Structure formats: structure tokens, C-alpha cells
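Changelog entry

Holo records now carry the ligand SMILES as an explicit input line rather than a separate metadata file. Below, a converted record for magnesium ion, shown in the new format.
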Amino acid sequence: MIQSLLDGILTGAIISLGAIGLTLIMHMLRFANFAYSELLAIGAYAALVFDRLFSTLVPVLDEAFAPLTLTGALALSMVIAMVLTGLSAVVIDWLVFRRIRQKADPLSMVFASFGVALIIRNVIVLIFGHHAQLYSQEIARATILSFDPLILIKPDQVFVLVLALVLMLALHLVLTRTTFGFALRAVAENPALAQVAGVRLTTVIAAVWIIAGSLSAAAGTLYALTNQLNPMIGPVFLLPVFAATIVGGIGSVYGAVLGGFIVGIASGLALLVLPSGYAPAMPFLIILAVLLVRPQGLFGEDQR
Amino acid sequence: MIGVVSYLTFFLTMAGIMAIITLGLNLQWGYTGLFNGGVVAFFGAGAYGTMILGGPAEPGQFGGFGLPYLVALGGGVLLAAALAWVVGLLTLRLRHDYLAISTFGVAVALESLARNSQWLTGGARGMRGFPRPFEAVIESNFLFGVVFLLIVLAVLALVWWGIERLVHSPFGRALRAIREDETAARALGKSPTRLRLWSLVIGAAIMGAGGGLYVSYTAFVSPQDLLPILTFQVWAMLIVGGAGNNRGAVLGAVLIWGAWTLSGFALTRLVPDSMQLDAGSIQYILIGTLIVSMLLWRPEGLLPERISNPRNTTVAKAAHTSNKE
Amino acid sequence: MTVLRIEQLEAGYVRDLPILRNVDLVAEHAKLTVIIGPNGAGKSTLIKAIAGLVPVSSGRVMLGETDITGLRPDLMGSHGLAYVPQTDNIFRHLTIRENLMLVLRRAPDRATRLEELYDLFPALRDKRGDRAGALSGGQRQMLAVAMALANRPSVILLDEPSAGLSPKIAGEVLDLTRGLTEQGVTVLLVEQNVKQALRVADHCYILAEGRNQIDGPAAQIASDPVVGEIYLGGKRMVAS
Ligand SMILES: Nc1ncnc2c1ncn2[C@@H]1O[C@H](COP(=O)(O)OP(=O)(O)OP(=O)(O)O)[C@@H](O)[C@H]1O
Ligand SMILES: [Mg+2]
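Structure line, unchanged by the conversion:
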């Protein structure tokens, strides 16, 4: 029970990181982006490439920060992956979504996002193969918090949770303390008025993609650090991040954070009663429940 | 020779089934502007529903009622329609993305249900042995193939005719009205939500019929038939052919199914055995690229819609917010 | 001196469906020019077209010697043009201070400028940490006007700033706009409240069905019973 809760909180943190960008994109560009969770995959694989590169070229970096399995190489790679994924998100927008946005309606973008997802996912398969990969071959030793009931936690997991919370706090400070944050929230609320207030839409949209891409890259890398990495990471996280977005209310960053934890914990606890094969369906059940009870989500505005 | 002809009947039967499903999607997306992200769910509901009702009994498994073919097929269709009804009821009042996400979610949920509910669906190994329709009368496999193709074509014609009737009826005119100016239509006392719900349900029923026909043709259904790729294929068919017109939908279905089959052949021949898994990925990339390129360069498809396009009505809104950006 | 000149403007929301046809308008320096006309006449559309929010299909908008036709709306401010929309003219989810800081974010002296705006609208200072959505109607309009004034525009476009306010507050808002002209700001005002508008305005344009109908000094328009009867609907004149 408590173990499931712990695991749920951890997955929740990762889902939250992933959902923050999605909720902003869905709100500002008004389309459900089914290619979104592929950003997690791009990030995690980019980190993998640089991790291998650095640990070969600069062996010193290959030392793990005990008790973590995280190495200097991986930490550095994650930062690079965040930047690269942010840029990829902007490039994908320029190549596909922006061009469709200019001449057609949001539904065509939803359509296109499925196409983009198929392409990204399968290009990753072609390059890296179907099999699972690990950043570090070291065994992550779990610490026993309690014997009865048995509760295990790995230092890496604590690190993941802390880092996820730090990233969210950083975003919170940007949104509430900087004029850039005001501009971003202004565009989210009323794009036309934001323009009147002197905000350039293209700049803010690009910034949102960068935020979305880098947080997703962090989510992907942290997930791969505590689990394993395979090309299905995109599809696996797709419904959970959508569910987190809907639970929190589309457009609400704080809603997405809370929604992520709710989805993670609920899915974790549900596995106590359901066979694990049903796990992929959990987020969908949560979405259904929210639509029944409170369609606008926790912090969302009316979505009619 | 018989080999070629029987392969051709197989190909055409499958293409015909795909065309039926594409027509269902055309009603939803082309004529109503509804985004169905889980075509495969309604196809699958039809397939599994038909199988459970009309298939043979299996020990330790619910179902196997062995009902008459048409009853089983009707049950499958109803199951697909009911699924759409529930999803539509929950989402159609809301922003369009909710329907997209929920239909996608239904497909994921259905796949995991099919994989895990041994007692209902036979789990991962699926269900087999659907009694071949008209077994008593038609003995030869070849003849059955031909007759079944004719049945599929007849259903296709029926669905086509039905949709044409529907879109030219007051219902269809109302659909067009809400598509063009929702506020005005609402003011005239039309309920957009109800009309959309009907369109979603009827479209899903048609997809369910496709699933039912599929299962009675192959006599077999498994979770492999519930993979999202079917949804993408059907979309590609509609978008290549041209949404909002039935000729385009059918043309697209035949073209894409042909291209899919051919590229599958080509890849199995060209790609070494060790990389066969990658061949699938290449096909996926091709279909993804096709969808994206069509949207970018020829969004109206090969055969554009003759009546006005639903997706142009939002231009005003777009111009309002994304002016010159 | 003419500050804003609109020449033969044709604009609309959808291609090939112009709302405005051949509209001409001139706003003189430090004068209050009012646009009146029935609902749906295209008054808001005209203002939005000037502000760059509605595509212009032909004609020109001249700001001084600069052609600002179809300029990106976010660049209008740097040319000295400010715009207060008719509805949704503040960011409800941002605090008062955040709303103001947003428009001031490129200003070199933003801290002092913020204080000046608070001095101008003391009610805003008292509520600076509150969400703008919590303001009363009149305070919202004040915030909207404060945001427009933040970067010292030379021309300000106001779309029905008094709509939905009590007569007393509406009068105050109109007096405020009048006061702006005394500080050298050119004001282009859209008003439903014809009588009040003509009281404060220097010049008046009447727009109907997207076209110029008549224009002249405000006092003259106000005293012309025929004009009132034909273009404004006699009843409305009385009612306001
Ligand atoms: N966003 C829009 N998209 C399409 N048409 C619009 C839009 N906004 C306004 N219109 C149309 O443009 C015409 C002029 O509207 P506008 O808002 O300019 O009128 P107005 O004179 O400001 O009226 P009011 O006094 O009610 O504010 C109307 O026919 C209206 O229906
Ligand atoms: Mg108006």
C-alpha cells in the first residue's frame, strides 16, 4: 500500500513534468497534441547519446554521485538533452504545426500530430532498436525504509522527485516573478489582448515549446534513469499526460502538476486491485471520471 | 491463375472493409467535423462483439453463443454504437480535443481489456473459429471468397447510399448548418450536441459493421487487430481521398490499402530477415509522412468536397487571434 | 495638425467579406474624436483595423507620416498608438501590478512609471496585489486605460469605455478621456452613449453599415435633430 503510494508519487512527478508543457500548448494553440509525449522520448534518447559520448571521451565524468547511479556524464547530458529537445519542439512547430495553423483549423493540427508522432517514434526505433536500454549498468541499491510492511526506495528515486520539484519551482518563479512570465500568462489568457499589450505571439509560442520540450526531456530522462528506456516511452506516457492535463484543467500549470501526481498515485493504487495488464487503461478511466464529475478539471475554465 | 484471382478477391475484400470503415469516419470527420482518435476501438467492438455472440463456445470463457450470423453482426454493430454513444455523451459538449483524447483512450482501454480479460476475449491469443457464413450452402473456399467479396461490396454500397441519403436529408442539412455557423443553428433551435452525437454513433456503427465483416471473413480476432495503426490507416485513406465526399473516401481506401500491401511486400523482399522488425517501422514512417504531407500540401485530398468545407469556417477566428503571426 | 488619418479603408474578418467600405477618418492632434453609430455598424471593427487586429484589404492608416496599415499589433505601441478594447481589455488572471508591469516591461523607467500610474489611479494602488478579475467594472476600465497610457502614447483608441458602467462612473470615465486631450494625447473614442459623448467630443463621425455617414464638429451634430433622427434612432438620443 505505502509502497504503491511511493511509486505512484514518483511516477506522478514525472507525469507532472510532462504535463506542464502539454497544458500550455493545448491551451494556447488549442489543439490536443498527440505527438507531445514523443518529446519525452527525444529527450531521453538524446541524453543516452550524450551520456555514452561523454563517458567514453571524458572517463572522469563517468563516476556516479554515490549513492545515486547518476553520473556527471548523465547530468550534463540531461541538460544538453533539455536544450536540444526544446529546440526540436520549436523546429517541429515551424515545420508542421505552424504551417497548418496558418491555413486550417486546430483539428487538422490534431491530425498532423498523430502523423508526427508516428514518424518520430519509428525513426527512434530505426536508430536505436526496439530493445530496452539503461543509462548505467550499475545496480541501483534500494534502501529499506521499513520491513513491515516492506518499503523500498532507491536513492535515484528520491533524486528524481527532488529534481522534478525543483524544476517546477523554477517554472513557478519564472511565471510569477518575471515580466516574461507575465507575458506568457497573458498570451495564455487572451492572445489578441497580449498582442495589444506589445507581446509578440511567435516569440511566446516558441518559448512555450522550449519550456515544454525541456521539461519533457527532463521527464523522459528521469523516467529512464529509474526504469529503463525503450521507444515506447512516448505512447506509454501519452494518455497519462493527457489525463493529468484534463484533471488539472487545460491551461493551468498548477493543475497539470497536481493532475500528474493524482494520475500517478491513482494508477499506482489501482494496481493493488487490478492486474497490471490494465495499467494502460487507468488514465483513460481517470479522464472519464473527470469528464463525468468536473469536465473543466480542478483549476480549468469552462471548456465548452 | 486461381491463386492470383483468389489473392485479388482477398485484397478487394479487405479494401472493401476498409472502405466501409472510411465511410464511417467520413460521416464523423468529413461531414460533421468530429475527430475520432480511436477508429480501431469501434472496429474492434464490432469484431469482438460479433465473435462473442456468433462464435463457438470455449471452455471457461463467456460467450460462444453461436447466434445466427446476422444477429451476431447486428450485436457487434450495436456494441460499437453504444461505445460511441457513451463517449459522445461525455465529451461532445466540450471542446473538440476531449473527443479526440477520449476516443483515443477508448482504443487503448479496449486493447488492454482484450489482452487481459481471458474470460471474455481469450486474452492475448484471441478468439478463433468463427463459423463461416453460409457454410451449409457454399463449400469451396474460393467460391466463399467471391461470395463474401460480393457481400462486402453490397454492404459498402448500402452504407454509401445510406450516408448520401442522410447528408441530403434534413439531418444532413442541419449538420451542415451547425458546421457553418453553430450559433445561428443553435438559434434556429437545432441542438448541435445531439446532431453530433448521432453522427458519431452512426459512424461508429458503420465502423463496427466493418469489424464484424472482418471477423466473419478471417474467422479470427486478437488484440493484434486492435493496434492503433488501423486508426492511422483509415485516416490516411480519408485524407488522401478527400474528406467530406464518399467517392474520395472509397478511392482513398483502395489506394492506401494497395500502397500498404505493396510496401509490405516490397519491404519483406528488400529488407534482410534480421531487420524485418524495422520494415514495420518504415511502413509507419511512410504513413505518418503521408498524413503530414497531405495536410501541408493538399489538405482537400485527391477528390475535394464539392459542398463548402467545414474546416474553413474557423478561418475568421484564426485571423482574429493569429493575425500576421 | 492631423495625427491619425484613415483613407478609403476596406477591412473585414473573412476574406472577400469586407465589413468596412471606403471609410475615411481624420483625428486632429490633442482633440477628442468620437465615432458613433448603431450596433453592428463596424465601429469596433474600424478601431481593431487601425490597431492591426483585423486584416485590411485596401486603403491606408497613416499615423503622422508613418504608414501603419497592417502592422503587427504588438508593434503599434512602439509607434505611439494605444488601444483599449471594448470587452476583455485586462488580463483577469494577472494581478493589477502584473498587468501594468506587462505593458511596462520594455520601459527604461518602469518603476517610476508604475508609481505615476498609481498616482493617476489611486484605487489601483490599493488593489495592486489583487487579481484584476476581482475589480469592479469602473476599476477595470481604469486599469485598461492605465495600461494603454503606460507607455505615453500619442494616440489612444478607446472602444466604449463607459459601457456597462453606472451613469455616474460612465461620466467620470468620459471626463477622464477628455482630460487626456489636455495632456496632448489624441483620442479616438467609440461611444454608445451619444449624448455624453457629444458633450466631451470635439469632432464626431457617424458610421453605419460599415460606411461613413456624416461627420462634423460635435456641437453641430448634437444640435442637428435630423441627423439624430436618421442615423442614431431618435429614441436612443432621448433614452441616453
Ligand atoms: N470576430 C468577428 N468575426 C466575424 N465577424 C465579426 C466579428 N466581430 C464582429 N463581426 C461582424 O462585424 C460587423 C461589425 O461589428 P462591430 O463589432 O464592428 O460593430 P460595432 O459597431 O462595434 O457594434 P457594437 O455597437 O455592438 O459594439 C457585425 O456585422 C459583426 O457581426
Ligand atoms: Mg463595438
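Spot-checked after migration. Strands of chain B lie at 127-128, 220-221. The longest helix of chain B spans residues 2-31.
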